[in-house]
Description:
single chain; alpha/beta; Rossmann fold; five-stranded parallel β-sheet; 8 helices
Amino acid sequence: MQGKFIAIYGINNIGKSTQTALLLQKLIAAGIRTEYVKYPIYNLDPTGKKLNEILRGKEQHNVQSMINFFEGTKVRKPATREKKNVTFRFHTIAPKEIRQRVTEQELQMWYSLNRYQYDPTIQKKLESGVTILAEDYTGTGLAWGAAKGADLEWLVNVNKFLCPPDVEILLDGERFLIGKEKVHLHESSDRLIEKARKSFQILAKRYKWEVVNANQSIQQVAQDLWKKIEPVVAEIKPRQHTDPLANWRLETEN
């Protein structure tokens, strides 16, 4: 049986990572084979690393291939030397202002390419019966791209050949500033965040996404999310937990 594809959307610092982690635990506890994916996937070369460079204002150029990220995260692995005369250094202090040095269309193309680059893996996992829980996906690109001036229909066409989710859920509410990342292009402007939120709301109506109020207790948001997800995954047959010694015991008892 094919797995289900679940996408969770929302502005930055709205609790997506917390809620997807809780939902992942719930799905696994229910016996559903589930894997978590966080877009963009930064450890994909070249798209993920290029996106990190654009979003965080880091000019890496010829040492780009030396940068690695832990699976599914934004966290850098320790830098290494590929040649004795080449070293890599990065600064932990954020610049006062991060400016986007590419057009929004180019940025969204890099996002789309990142999704297309991983799309065969997504489809293969779904076909093998694995349910995919994605934090951000095409809806994220549509919302942010439109908020920053890119044509929405152009964005739709750029992403239209990607694997479609079975369910898309928007976490909507005021963001929690405690999680604000100062070196991230999309988190440094409150005005831009508000524009992106409005874009998400418009898209939720257009595509009939499920919407959950993110400004509740963590437990209540998790419960509301599960109510939206449970009918979608209900038809998936839970994995059977068998005792590996059961057959051995039967053989020895006879």
